[in-house]
Amino acid sequence: MNLPQPKEMLGALLAHPDALLVVREPSAAPRPAPGQPGVASDYVQATPEVFIAVLGGSSEPLQDARSEGWRVLAFNGHVDLGTGIRTSLAQIVAEELDVPLSRLDMVLGHTNAAPNQGPTIASATIQISAVPLRRAAAQAREHLLTLAARQWNVPRDALRVRDGVIRLADAGDSRRLHYGELLRGQHIRLLLAPPDQEVRLKPAEEYRIVGQTVARVDIPAKATGELSFVHDVRVPGMRHGRVIRPPHPGRDAGDFIGRSLAELDRESIAHLPGNVQVVAQGDFIGVVADREEQAIAAMRALKVRWKPIPAAPRLDKLEAAIRANPSTARPLIDEGDVDAACAAAATHLRRSYVWPYQMHASIGPSCAVADFSDGRLTVWTGTQNPHMLRADLNRLLRLGEDRIELVRLEAAGCYGRNCADDVCADAALLSIAVGAPVRVQLTREQEHQWEPKGTGQLMDVSAAIDANGELSAYDFAVRYPSNDAPLLALLLTGAIPAEPRTLEMGDRTAAPPYRYPNRRIVCHDMAPLVRASWLRGVSALPNSFAHDCMIDELAHAAGADPVEYRIRHLDDARAGARTYVAASAVLISIDGSEEGEGEFQRLAAFLREQSARRANLPVFLYGERRTIEKVP
Questions:
Q1: Phi-psi region for residue 358, left (φ > 0), alpha (ψ -120 to 50) or beta?
Q2: What is the 3-state secondary structure (H, E, C) of 605-622?
């Protein structure tokens, strides 16, 4: 099986005889801000972090027949969770470096190859972590153009590059060089320019790749059954493990956690085939066998007795449970005089909105393969937090982060937190215990019981409008019982205390997008009620849901069209444009009847009018069995 080898890749790059590398000097990752997710680590790797590598010729283990002669590798610390960032990041690099996508490979999330850019969360990859990658590609392009200018003794601005081939702007001069020829016999390293240093970026009007539809680069391997998912990993000598969890699913706080095992009868599975071994450390219990079905049989047959477990929190009355949870108020915005505006209002509405707990329900239960040998641990993982997980595994195993390598492969999508990190620790503990590579896959029941649920949330909203129906005041308080769900093995083995931890994560989109002259926004920070993290956008979806429920009710009270009312109270032109598109989406359900046609025409006329009023912003109308119509 052709598994990625990031450690060997990095070494080959740093020793490549024909290469241009854009690197960042190694340094400790920024510590998480107070109240924010993340693991504090002082680890500094010994080698530079590579962002861009332009390689001339071919060299094992970097040879690639598809791009014989020269190729490009680009590295990003974030991972593709199914959203297609492997493709979109490739577009950004290919555009800025001006190379064909066919000559470019993205390397994402491998701890021994990709830079530490924090966890892949909040849909932040393109807006944040893609920026240094784009700048690195631009630096590489400019340096290559400078090399060509020196070789031909012409000004840099006399040159043009397309698809990695440099020519002179003068069409009468036929000289040309591709990137590989320029790098022959040279190993060049450029330091990534700091954010405050100007880098010559390609103007948007010259884009040929960014903004265009291109084929997803990950689809071919998935369609043909090539290695793509962590579930497919097989390594020589690999054995199979399963875990037995305590009888308190979804609980990760309380003095009983890590201390609940009463009795473990190892002899209860001694008769089973497969060289079965039992591993126990605190409340962590696992079995390892030669074959997967043997490990499953051992998991089911092992006799375990647990101590009585305290009753779980009651969540059948979710609003009351969240409201009763201890919290600390954190003011976010206090503008104007909310109380006075509400007292003088023509209409004053008070509402509470409850967002339920939700399960990620990943279609594939989490899986990992760990191999501990010669004092080093390699884990093939589907995590969305590679570098953060490496620090957590070091907290568990005390090996040193330099001895832990995470090779990131795709897994079942999570969009928050499933058990992808937990199963890595399970596999690591079992591999160390039995001295062989171990593959662990959770059962579907374990995945769904123990994954950190998308947390419930409570939003209390008070809003007022004046006699003319204009927005007057907004009083918003949010409660978000969640943290980043500590690694289960850390809790079950007793490596860390199972104490509630509070993060300041309920404030995303807590400020409404609408224009209220008087605003009071407060976040009540609180620990989880049960094991909970986030499901898409941290707290953003529930907060936005509450804002728009209230604006609907205010529009009704004002006797106004809810779409027009929103647009009238938005200062953000892009938000206004998105409102048009959202409004037009109702047309999807309109049939071909006369009544439906009339409704289509009425809304189309309204959107055309609004588009003209808002600087001719484009709007697309979607009607059943209609072609897409762009307005205006």
A1: beta
A2: HHHHHHHHHCCCCCEEEC
β-strand pairing of 376-381 with 404-408 = parallel
Q: Is the pLDDT of residue 614 over 80?
A: no
Show Cβ contacts of residue 124 under 8 Å, excluding neighbours closer than 6 positions: none
How far apart, in Å, are the Cα atoms of 423 and each of 148, 253, 435? 51, 19, 18
Q: Are 72 and 104 within 8 A, CB to CB?
A: yes
* DSSP secondary structure code for residue 206 in this structure: G
Distance CA(443)–CA(441), nearest Å, equals 7
Q: How many residues does the chain have?
A: 632
Whole-number Å distance between alpha carbons of 604 and 620: 9
Q: Can you give the pLDDT at residue 417?
A: 85
Structure confidence at residue 602 (pLDDT): 67
Q: What is the DSSP string of 426-474?
A: HHHHHHHHHTS-EEEE--HHHHHHHSPEEPPEEEEEEEEE-TTS-EEEE
Closest to 195 measured CA to CA, from 136, 235, 140:
136
Q: Measure the N-to-C terminal CA separation of the chain; round to a whole number of Å.
A: 55
Cβ atoms of 252 and 481 closer than 8 Å = no
What is the DSSP-derived secondary structure letter of residue 517? S
**With bands split at pLDDT 50, 70 and 90, how would you rate the model's confidence at 275?**
very high
Q: Quick check: 424 and 404 in contact, CB under 8 A? A: no
Q: Which residues contact 128 (CB under 8 A, 6 or more apart)?
A: 117
Cβ–Cβ < 8 Å for 381, 424:
yes
Asked whether the predicted pLDDT for residue 628 surpasses 60, the reply is no
Round to whole Å and give the CA distance between 269 and 301.
6
Q: Say what percent of the chain tops pLDDT 70.
A: 89
Whether residue 67 is predicted with pLDDT greater than 90 in this model: the reply is no
Gap between the Cα atoms of 244 and 221, Å rounded: 34
| Token duo for residue 199 | 């880098």
CA distance 521 to 500: 25
Q: Tens digits of per-residue pLDDT, 97-142?
A: 999 999 999 999 999 999 999 888 878 899 889 999 999 999 999 9
**Omega before 310 within 30 of 0, i.e. cis:** no
Confidence of residue 620 (pLDDT cuts 50, 70, 90): very low
Q: Among 285, 349, 286, which residue's Cα sits nearest to residue 553?
A: 349
163 sits in the region (left: phi over 0; alpha: psi -120 to 50; else beta) called left
CA 110 to chain centre: 15
d(CA 221, CA 234): 17
Task: Extract the tokens encoding 110.
Answer: 């491998």
Cα dihedral angle (60, 63, 68, 72), rounded to 10 degrees? -110
Does the pLDDT value for residue 607 go beyond 80? Answer: no
- Whole-number pLDDT of residue 296: 98
Beta carbons within 10 angstroms of residue 54's beta carbon: 30
Counting Cα atoms < 13 Å in the Cβ hemisphere of 500 gives: 12
Please give the C-alpha separations between residue 617 and each of 210, 333, 609, 612, in angstroms, as whole numbers. 21, 31, 11, 7
